[in-house]
Amino acid sequence: MGLFKTTPEERAKKERKQREKEKRKREAAFAKTPAGQARAAKAAGMKIFQIDIPLSKTKASTVAMVGAFAHSTKIEDYSSTIQAIENEGWHLDNVGYVYRITGSESRDKFLSSCQQEAVSGEIVGIYIFRAV
Predict the structure, then answer these.
(1) Bridge-partner residues for 106, per DSSP?
(2) What is the DSSP string of the chain?
(3) What angle do CA 116, 56, 121 make, to 5 degrees?
(4) Model-level pTM?
(5) What residues of the chain score a pLDDT lower than 70?
(6) CA torsion 42→46→48→54, rounded to 10°?
(7) Average predicted confidence (pLDDT) for the chain
(8) Which residues are CB-neighbours of 40 under 8 A, at least 6 positions away?
(9) pLDDT per residue as tens digits for the range 40-73
(10) What's the CA gap between 23 and 116, in Å, rounded?
(11) Which long-range contacts (CB under 8 A, 24 or more apart) does 93-101 make?
(12) CA-CA distance, 9 to 17, in Å (whole number)?
């Protein structure tokens, strides 16, 4: 037997440990997702599950002598996320939307005593699920 050679049993043990490590890593990553949180809530015996998901962001800017502007961008389509939560044994019961302000930018108007303001923020969907 050579000095650096491993036996088939040692290789199998190393591969098994590697597979277990990868499985724990995948499970930890899934637990951080909305579906993973829904599964944990269901396992804890919760009857209601709420999740807040940002749907779009608005970036504000002001330009001297021109005006204040806001540019909106859609973040992602979350229909597959909602379906994944329902697959964990939940039913979408109610949805609400709010605009959460994250900042603003303002400046004095040119040759005037007024101000221009542009607001940055995001639209957040609040989803409430009921256990099935």
Answers:
(1) 117
(2) --SS---HHHHHHHHHHHHHHHHHHHHHHHHTSHHHHHHHHHHTT-SEEEEEEEEEEEEEEEETTTEEEEEEEE----HHHHHHHHHTTEEEEEEEEEEEEEEEEEEEPTTSS-EEEEEEEEEEEEEEEEE-
(3) 35
(4) 0.70
(5) 1-4, 62, 64-70, 107-113
(6) -60
(7) 85
(8) 31
(9) 999 999 999 999 999 988 887 767 666 666 677 7
(10) 54
(11) 93/48, 93/128, 93/129, 93/130, 94/127, 94/128, 95/125, 95/126, 95/127, 95/128, 96/125, 96/126, 97/55, 97/123, 97/124, 97/125, 97/126, 98/123, 98/124, 98/126, 99/123, 99/124, 100/124
(12) 12
Q: How far apart are alpha carbons 30 and 19 in whole angstroms?
A: 16
Residue with tokens 């021109």: 66
Written as six digits, the tokens of 76 are 């992602």
